[in-house]
Amino acid sequence: MSLKKILPGAAFMASSLSLAAAAANEVILRRGDGATAVARQTPAQSLAQSQSAQPPPQTAAPAGTAGGQADAAAKVVLESGTYTVNVEFPAAQIKGQAELEINGDTFTLRQDDKVVKGRVSGRSERGHTSFTLSFEEFLRGVANPNDASPYLSVRALDVADAFVRPGESVKELRSVKGESKELMMEFLSAKPSIKDLSGQSEGGTGPKPTPTPNP
To answer: Is the Cα dihedral 180, 104, 189, 116 positive or negative?
Structure first.
């Protein structure tokens, strides 16, 4: 077969493909009176239209969430008992070794003739466990002498200075940065564990966040 016989057929196929491509880029426009018109799209317009028709990509839920929902906070308490602690608590004028008694949601801190009593409540959320101490007696904050708040927020830390989860033992209670009353309480021998009262303990999976040390 000669080359002259092949070329006309190839030219016809190319012409047919060009007409098909042009038809694919034509859009029928219908006016309000029922009349129609044909509009030609550029290749860029055709690509944009095809992309807009595709569904949006699915995104994965953030780590530490279930179905995109944040972990619920768990109500926690410190294990009841009597503990020997090393304390730095300027607002109560207590420094050095002392005795801490925990009974449910109440606590008593003793050093010689100094006694501080109050209540403690805690919560654990996203690997962070914190407690709020509510004092029976007025304790003036050293950082803020005019402080009249009976409350003090503290973090529960382990031996590696990382936050403690429910079911784990506490090595230290440390006041949250920015509090007017500063407290550092280290458990010397026996260490209380954190009890989860809500039945939704976070467990011990994954790395635990480490707090930023107070200046």
So the answer is: positive
Count of residues in the chain:
215
Decide: 109 and 98 in contact? Cβ < 8 Å: yes
Strand locations in 22-180, DSSP E? 26-30, 36-40, 74-78, 81-89, 94-103, 106-111, 114-125, 128-135, 151-157, 172-175
pTM of the prediction?
A: 0.59
Q: List, in sequence order, the alpha helices (H) in 53-113.
A: none
3-state secondary structure of 196: strand
- pLDDT digits 0-9 by tens, 3-46: 444 445 544 444 444 444 444 454 444 555 555 555 555 555 55
pLDDT, tens digit, for every residue of 142-193? 778 788 789 999 999 987 778 888 889 999 999 998 898 999 999 998 999 9
Q: What gap in Å lies between CA 150 and CA 207, rounded to an integer?
A: 34
Measured at the CA of 52, the angle between CA 36 and CA 21, to 5 degrees, comes to 55
